[in-house]
Design brief:
CATH topology of the largest domain: Jelly Rolls
Helix content: 40-55%
Mean pLDDT: 84
Structural class: alpha+beta
CATH superfamily of the largest domain: Regulatory protein AraC
Order of helices and strands: EEEEEEEEEEHHEHHHHHHHHHHE
Radius of gyration: 20 Å
Number of strands: 12
Strand content: 15-25%
Largest sheet: 6 strands, antiparallel
Length: 322
Amino acid sequence: MASRKKQEIELRFYEVPQGEMVLPLLGSGWIREYGNDINVLHFHNLCEIGYCIDGEGEMIFDDVVVPFEPGMLTIIPKNFPHTTKSKLHTKSYWEYLFFEPDDILNETYPDNKFFVEKIGKLVNENEQHFYAGENDEMVSIVRMIMEECRNRQNYSRECIKGLLLALVIAIARQDKGKNEQKEKALSSEEKTEDMTHHSGIYHIAGALDYITKQYMEEIRMETLAACCNLSETHFRRLFVEYMNMTPVEYINLVRIQQACELMKKTHYSMEELAVKVGYTTVSTFNRNFRKIIGTSPYQYKKNSNSFEGKLLNLKVSAKKGW
């Protein structure tokens, strides 16, 4: 089988607001021509739920292309390459929810690690999409979460938490059914081909997830390799092949991205900031910051708008949302 051409893929980094369970992207600001002049796939550090209110076009899930239309619901796991393209010269209206399923499960079932891992694995395994009328129950849950986020009435957090838990379980239940049907339908040879057909990012997804959650700690290569069930040598080779950078470079990219966000939201000293994002010395923090952003942390803090575009010039771009 001919080898697939390696694609450039962007990382789009989102953060759930402190004290909240979900990041909602709602309203008329999301009426736009999606995919205009964008020729690369991207992936997120969080699970993405999308609901199409208006418009037509295509959704690209790794190498699978499906049409979208009003009423479509998409469920895209973290680290899953995808993109949205509106019909040429038209606008579409999507609304989104971003959240970390593991956080919902861990907060609800703190003493049941096995259950959390089992459900989390199902939720993060595959993309799912449904057209209008195909899964009204799940669409109803998603719309209720969106409306609760939009209106913010009494006990909103508790309501959203309950709805998110129901959504996570519904996703896992649906995905489990699909996987069982697929297992029955595929021969062993077809299963092997199906696994190798996906983007190579899946081979290192465990490491990407670990870095997202543990960037502020010391990260060892053997730990990342173990997350992917690979030898350290094989892991390093695959990581460079699929991400166009070494694991250490990617760790630094995520850390500096987080530092940029903290600078906007807090008043930490540079010494405190360095520790918060995983550096033991300010000099190491300053050196990596300058290498990635092109200026010192002090200059960035004074005029961040002048330097944010630097993050977008990398093969894997860590940037805030769209």
